[in-house]
Specification:
Blueprint lengths: L9 E6 L8 H10 L4 E7 L2 H13 L4 E6 L1 H11 L5 E6 L5 H6 L5 H9 L2 E10 L2 E3 L2 E5 H8 L2 H7 L3 H12 L3 E6 L8 E12 L3 E2 L3 E2 L11 E7 L3 H8 L14 E5 L1 E7 L3 E4 L2 E5 L2 E14 L11
Parallel strand pairs: 1-2, 1-3, 3-4, 4-17
Antiparallel strand pairs: 5-6, 5-17, 7-9, 7-15, 8-9, 8-14, 9-12, 10-11, 12-13, 14-17, 15-16
Helix pairs in contact: 1-5, 2-3, 6-8
Protein name: Diacylglycerol kinase
Family: Belongs to the diacylglycerol/lipid kinase family.
Keywords: ATP-binding, Kinase, Lipid biosynthesis, Lipid metabolism, Magnesium, Metal-binding, Nucleotide-binding, Phospholipid biosynthesis, Phospholipid metabolism, Transferase
């Protein structure tokens, strides 16, 4: 299957609780009109519903599963579909939609449906932390505080602007931590890090509503990008914040940046880990990347990934 139109049977799974997921019937009509063989439609409202629904659509034998929701919903689905040969289609209905940004999927339901119907199939990598999947970024520190400050009400009222608001709130409450990064493959020496603001491990390119992990990060480069930002005076963190969009903050003095395929993060104290906007595990955390783990539909013009097989 090299294009979405080659699918014999497609299922649509929509998170009705996503910021833009309240009118799923619009997506059904648009996708069917565009020529996709949507034969099953599922609305989910919780993680438990999503897990059961994904088991159902995998067992039904669909060769394309279109998932509408935010990054957390799509990442969870990716973890279930990885290795099955089933192609994932993405409708960005959340607040940040960073995977869609990485894959160059347009915002807006009309444009996203059109790009999906006419899209090509590529291979992308999948990150894992303690066995849990992530597509964009897994992190500890400030980002967890941001996630905890992102109430559904804030996201619905402010949209992507909710992220800088939540970041300011989280920064005011942040407590520094110690961290140790180990590299089981021996490609780097152990890093001992004191007084940390955040440590992040990226599989994709974008996170946090459009920030870049680094200038060179990609979702099919078969590596993880790691950055670690230490504590510093507020003025230095403001300078770093201004460079988040293009990822050039990793070039600042004091910021650690490296790439690897396997890392282990130990923190003092143990800390929760944020996976694409969902707090799903705790440190110590083992990070790996699964090469070409997932087939996904992207717009024909997208250069984010290729079909490796």
């Amino acid at each position: 299957m090299k294009a979405a139109r080659d699918a014999d049977s497609a299922a649509l799974v929509i998170n009705a609780g996503a910021r833009l997921g309240a009118a799923p019937e619009l997506a059904v009509g648009k996708l069917q009109k565009a020529g996709l063989p949507i034969s099953a439609v599922h609305h989910v409202r919780s993680g438990a519903d999503l897990a059961g629904t994904l088991e159902q659509v995998v067992a039904a034998g669909h060769d394309l599963v279109v998932v509408g929701g935010g990054d957390g919903t799509v990442s969870f689905a990716a973890g279930r579909l990885a290795g099955t040969g089933i192609v994932l289609g993405v409708l960005p209905l959340g607040t940040a939609n960073d995977l869609a940004r990485t894959l160059e999927i347009p915002a807006g339901l009309d444009a996203a449906c059109a790009a999906l119907a006419d899209g090509k199939v590529v291979d992308i990598d999948l990150g894992r932390v303690n066995g849990e999947p992530f597509l964009n970024v897994a992190s500890v520190g400030l980002s967890v505080g941001v996630t905890e400050s992102l109430s559904p009400r804030l996201k619905r009222s402010l949209g992507p602007l909710a992220y800088p608001v939540a970041a300011v709130r989280a920064y005011a409450r942040h407590k520094p931590f110690r961290a140790r990064l180990e590299f089981p493959n021996g490609d780097h020496g152990t890093l001992e890090l004191d007084d940390m603001l955040q440590v992040a491990i990226g599989n994709g390119r974008h996170y946090g509503g459009g920030n870049a992990v680094s200038p060179t990060a990609g979702i099919d480069d078969h590596t993880l990008d790691i950055y670690a930002i230490p504590g510093a005076p507020l003025r230095e963190h403001v300078r770093i914040a201004r460079l988040l969009k293009d990822g050039s903050f990793v070039e600042r003095d004091g910021v650690h940046h490296l790439t690897t395929q396997h890392a282990r993060l130990v923190t003092e104290p143990p800390l929760p880990v944020n996976l694409d906007g969902e707090i799903a595990t705790v440190t110590p955390a083992d990070f790996t990347v699964e090469r070409n783990a997932l087939h996904v539909v992207v717009p024909r013009h997208s250069s984010a990934a290729v079909l490796d097989g």
